[in-house]
Amino acid sequence: MVGTGPGSIEHLSPRALKALQEADVIAGYKTYIELIAPIVEGKEIISTGMTREVERCRAAIQRARGGQKVALVSSGDPGVYGMAGLALEILHRENLFDQVEVEIIPGITSATAAAALLGAPLMHDFVVMSLSDLLTPWEVIEKRLALAAQGDFVVVLYNPASHKRTSQIRRARELLLQHKKASTPVGIVRKAYRDGEEVVITDLEHMLDHPLDMFSIVIIGNNQTQRMGNFLVTPRGYAL
Amino acid sequence: MVGTGPGSIEHLSPRALKALQEADVIAGYKTYIELIAPIVEGKEIISTGMTREVERCRAAIQRARGGQKVALVSSGDPGVYGMAGLALEILHRENLFDQVEVEIIPGITSATAAAALLGAPLMHDFVVMSLSDLLTPWEVIEKRLALAAQGDFVVVLYNPASHKRTSQIRRARELLLQHKKASTPVGIVRKAYRDGEEVVITDLEHMLDHPLDMFSIVIIGNNQTQRMGNFLVTPRGYAL
Fold first, then answer.
1. CA-nearest residue of chain A to B115?
2. B240 lies in a domain?
3. Is the model's pLDDT at A184 over the cut of 80?
4. Which end of chain A has the lower number of beta carbons within 10 A, N or C?
């Protein structure tokens, strides 16, 4: 289970590169496989669309049981809204741990990739949440947003919106505004380290003026987060 | 500002490697510079102890103002309890953004490095917190722990304990136990991807039976987190 980082091969670890090179089969969502195309050229590819994760995992596991080396690819880190959990669940339920050797290879996750492009918004305690309610009841997401705001955490939102899901981010903003000021700085990064990269610094008041989709990460500051030059910074509290 | 990842050079990105190779001066905490010694051999090193961050940053900035290429090194990611925020703050306060060109190069942060060694405990919404109260009032940390537990977040603790700070982790455990079961799985990773690496899966009841220090990351599950084989997994909720 290989994390390929935010996008460009510049951010892929040597361990991940080696695993991809040694693999007989590469399995993953097709958009992410395209990002690493030069590395996996000529290999067998198991590539399915965005919502076919279970199918893709089962196919990967079947190849591994047959003795092939399979790289199950997630962009970012495989353990943060990636494929690692699902693959381990299937192996566990089907009692396959003695048939398949597993290694999880971490990658740079979108939260820290986006943060690096914005400056240093994650220097203090933060929450990572997905706004996708496909697999999580919306009430749970609402509750967590409210608690995160109450705790003055920096909040990182994965999957803030999609073509079909547009109301969630509006509601999330309302909940955050109950405990965070409208002037709280917000960073939006789309396609971090990929072609078409966009980096925006705005605030809770104006964040919905900017386009958001499944390629966007939204980072909402805590009560100390400030714009400094072109950067967004959450001070840690050093005496200067 | 360069993130060198969890430890071994296997997890350092090509972008970070290139920045280290091109730098005239390497600045950072000495333990972390030792981990990348083969790469930075022969270069000028500005290395100070753990609590001398401000001094180290100022020295790095002074060299950069003098026209040298400086790599200010953080292990993990420079933006997660690393050096990026402090350096940007100093540049901002001293009005130096037009004198020093800045790039923040992300790295694999300890939370995801530890998670990969444990399995996939961060597959659902999580909180990243530091238990160090050197720079943050302890009341704020207590409040955040309580809210994180209430929200059934997976909780990742950085800096859980040091030689001097031993009571914080005991109190944190008490607060988490107010909303999480004693049987909640806990993963402890010490020195991830370094010599002496230790990986333990335990639970909230027994977590204090294991040694904890500044090299440890503690991950406390949510109410779905399970031990599966030798792995710790937080299911995302796929129908299987």
1. A79
2. no
3. yes
4. C
Which of A21, A123, A139 to mutate: most B Cβ within 10 Å? A123
> In terms of domains, do A172 and A211 share one?
yes
Residues of A with CB below 8 A from B227's CB?
none
Q: How many domains does chain A have?
A: 2
Q: What is the pLDDT of residue A53?
A: 87
Residues A158 and A183 in one domain: yes
Nearest to A107 among B104, B108, B130 (CB): B108
Phi first, then psi: give them for residue B205, nearest 5 degrees.
-55, -45
CATH number where A188 lies = 3.30.950.10
List the structure tokens of A104.
Answer: 């999880």
Alpha helices in B23-159 (DSSP H): 30-35, 37-40, 53-65, 84-93, 110-118, 138-150
Condensed to tens digits (0 to 9), the pLDDT of residues B77-133 reads 999 999 999 999 999 999 999 999 999 999 999 999 999 999 999 999 999 999 999
CB A184 within 8 A of CB A223: yes
pLDDT tens for each residue of B154-185: 999 999 999 999 999 999 999 999 999 999 99
Put simply, the answer to whether B229 touches A122 (Cβ < 8 Å) is no
The ipTM (two decimal places) reads: 0.96
Same domain, yes or no: A145 and A190: yes
Find the CATH number of the domain harbouring B7.
Answer: 3.40.1010.10
Cα(A29)–Cα(B1) distance, integer angstroms: 32
Domain boundary among A93, A124, A144: A93
Q: Which helix (H) or strand (E) holds A3?
A: strand A2-3
For B56, the domain range is: 2-93
B105 vs A contacts (CB less than 8 Å)? 116
Of the residues A9, A124, A126, the best mutation for testing chain B's interface (the one with the most B CB atoms within 10 Å of its CB) is A124
Report CA-CA distances (Å) from B193 to A11, B112, B168, B198: 18, 12, 26, 9
Cα(A57)–Cα(B101) distance, integer angstroms: 44
